Amino acid sequence: MTARTPSDGGSKGVAVAGTVAIVGFPNVGKSTLVNRLTQSRAAVVHETPGVTRDRKELLCDWNGVAFRLIDTGGVDEADTGPFAASIAQQARAAIEEADLVLYRDDARAGITPGDEELAAILRPARTSVIVLANKLDDPRRDLDALEFHRLGLGDPVPLSALHGHGTGDLLDEIVSRLPGTGVAPVGDEAVRVAILGRPNVGKSSLLNALLGEERVIVSDVPGTTLDAIDTVLRRGETTFLLVD
After folding, report:
1. DSSP collapsed to 3 states, the chain
2. Rg for the chain (alpha carbons), in Å?
3. Which residues, other chains included, contact 212 with Cβ-Cβ below 8 Å and sequence gap of 6+?
4. pTM of this prediction?
5. Which of 89, 151, 191, 206 is buried deepest, with most CB atoms within 10 A?
6. What is the structure's pLDDT at 195?
7. Pair type for strands 2-4 and 100-106
8. How far is CA 94 from the centre of its chain?
9. Dihedral (CA of 185, 45, 71, 231) sign
10. How far apart are CA 236 and CA 182, in angstroms?
11. What is d(CA 93, CA 200) in angstroms, rounded to the nearest whole number?
12. pLDDT tens-digit profile of 43-81?
């Protein structure tokens, strides 16, 4: 298995099977799963909730089948913090864009009110969902995943993103559910543009203005953008890769 950013050189001609979004409550291991599935350290992992805020895309390959993987911030409807509403908006945008959603839960904590709220958002969505009962580091505890049937989103999959338990079977399931077509990644022809500057000078606002959408979170709080966010912009015959 290999992982590339959506902008990898030499990616022209790669067939992309679809788009997968990872959503869930804060601190349930979404970014750890991203790094496990892509065999990289592309997603920032920290014990502090809320480290991931914007949508972050990677290109994942499993047995010769490539797909776009979107990491999102933790969604907590009860959170009154300065970024909570924007993080939730980013997650909803990822859900709308995706062909398949991986819904992460912490199996050790069981179902929480926040899980019920997120499940209520996903149930009416047209997007297919796989429920992941994460942090089951001991395979003998796989039956603990059965509790998540209550969410009404299908059969839960026991998983340990940290140790890799169940990730191979998960990737098989992901590939089997994707439509087989998707947005191709950009190749060597793309013009690469990095947006640099001191904190809180408007880099994210500039990126959103260029794209014509709220692609990244904008706030008066310095350091709002924690990850490098690669975004593709096409104007006429020219493709740009913008890095905030």
Report:
1. CEEECCCCCCCCCCCEEEEEEEEECCCCCHHHHHHHHHCCCCCCCCCCCCCCCCCEEEEEEECCEEEEEEECCCCCCCCCCCCHHHHHHHHHHHHHHCCEEEEEEECCCCCCHHHHHHHHHHCCCCCEEEEEEECCCCHHHHHHHHHHHHHCCCCCEECECCCCECHHHHHHHHHHHCCCCCCCCCCCCCEEEECCCCCCCCHHHHHHHHHCCCCCCCCCCCCCCCCCCEEEEEECCEEEEEEC
2. 18
3. none
4. 0.68
5. 151
6. 75
7. unpaired
8. 8
9. negative
10. 20
11. 24
12. 555 444 444 556 778 888 898 888 988 888 777 666 666
Tokens of 142: 């796989």
Which backbone phi and psi does 233 adopt, to 5 degrees? -130, 130
Asked if 212 and 163 touch (Cβ cutoff 8 Å), the reply is no
Hey, how many other C-beta atoms are within 10 angstroms of the C-beta on 88?
A: 20
CB 90 within 8 A of CB 42: no
